[in-house]
Amino acid sequence: MNRGNSSFSVDLSNLTSWLWPVLFLGLLASVGLGWLVNSILILIGLILIAPIVAFLILRWWVNRNLITGPCPVCATEVTGFNNTQFFCPNCQSPLQIDNGSVHRVTPPGTIDVEAVDVSVSQISSGD
Ligand SMILES: [Zn+2]
To answer: Which parts pass through the membrane (predicted)?
Structure first.
């Protein structure tokens, strides 16, 4: 009877090998190291949650800053980040996305007198 019980425990350890860390943490808690268990659990939680939070923030940021619009030169649909310069993949025109719309970059030599700081209006236009 007892020998059969030992083989059963081997099968149980194979099935529930993931349970041993939990039992180990429970043992630590039972000897007065609950703070250690809590900090380990918090650490594990942070490790698990941090990539999810980072991914959500990144997705929110991409949704907010990734702008799609027609190229003003050739009307090809182009995608780029807000307040960045890039080249149209179709006509190679230098483009800039400003305030959520695609503009053609002003040719060099042209003085742009409308130097407006848009950071304040960007923050206040949130949803
Ligand atoms: Zn183009």
So the answer is: 18-36, 41-62
Reported as a single tens digit per residue, the pLDDT across 11-44 is 655 656 778 888 887 888 788 877 887 888 899 9
Helix axes 34-65, 19-30, angle to 10 degrees: 130
- Looking at the fold, whether 18 and 57 belong to one and the same domain comes out as yes
**pLDDT tens, residue by residue, 69-123:** 999 889 999 998 888 899 999 999 899 988 888 888 876 666 555 555 656 555 5
CATH classification at residue 106 = 2.20.28
> How many domains does the structure of the chain reveal?
2
- Global pTM value: 0.43
Residues 39 and 57 grouped into a single domain: yes
What does DSSP assign to residue 106? Answer: P
Ligand 1 centre distance from Cα of residue 82 (Å): 17
Q: Which amino acid is at 115?
A: A
The terminus-to-terminus CA distance of the chain in angstroms comes to 69
Same domain, 89 and 58: no
Q: Does the CA dihedral 70-72-76-79 come out positive or negative?
A: negative
